[in-house]
Write a structure and sequence with these properties.
Blueprint (H helix, E strand, L loop, with lengths): L5 H18 L3 H11 L5 H5 L3 H10 L2 H14 L7 E6 L6 E8 L4 H17 L3 H6 E5 H5 L1
Parallel strand pairs: 2-3
Antiparallel strand pairs: 1-2
Helix pairs in contact: 1-5
């Protein structure tokens, strides 16, 4: 089985999202959300979110980058199960703080290893903003 170079995948798609970011003037944020809802990257996950939640997520992270991360995680770690997304908000201000990617499976040790691997790859590829705004959770490991 050939090894996928996720660093190259992140880097290639990062260049594409930079173009969007340079063009972004508010209107394109809405377009990005609509495209992400119908994306070939994990259509069920992003598509299941309501528009209010998507807007909150889009205020924190680039939807395309998040979609790419979900695609990479699902392909690289299929045994973790189908992820869900949630947003953590400040309890007093209701301001979004970070996005959670929640997997049903994965041991405590595996969870730690995956987070280190994924965050390292994201940083190498230039996704530093996304690294600081996304938490990867394995519920099985959390319950151990």
């Amino acid at each position: 089985m050939a090894m996928t170079n996720y660093h190259d995948t992140y880097s290639t798609l990062w260049r594409g999202t930079q173009i969007w970011s340079e063009l972004d003037n508010g209107i394109l944020s809405t377009i990005k959300i609509k495209i992400a809802q119908n994306s070939t990257y994990i259509p069920g996950i992003i598509g299941r979110l309501n528009e209010k939640t998507l807007l909150k997520i889009a205020s924190l992270v680039d939807i395309f980058e998040l979609s790419l991360l979900l695609e990479v995680l699902s392909n690289k770690y299929p045994h973790l199960g189908s992820p869900t997304l949630d947003i953590v908000e400040d309890p007093e201000t209701q301001e979004p703080l970070f996005v959670e990617i929640i997997f049903p499976n994965g041991t405590w040790e595996e969870w730690g290893r995956i987070v280190r691997e994924v965050k390292s790859e994201m940083e190498k590829a230039g996704f530093k903003e996304l690294v600081s705004k996304v938490a990867i959770i394995c519920l099985q490991g959390l319950r151990e």
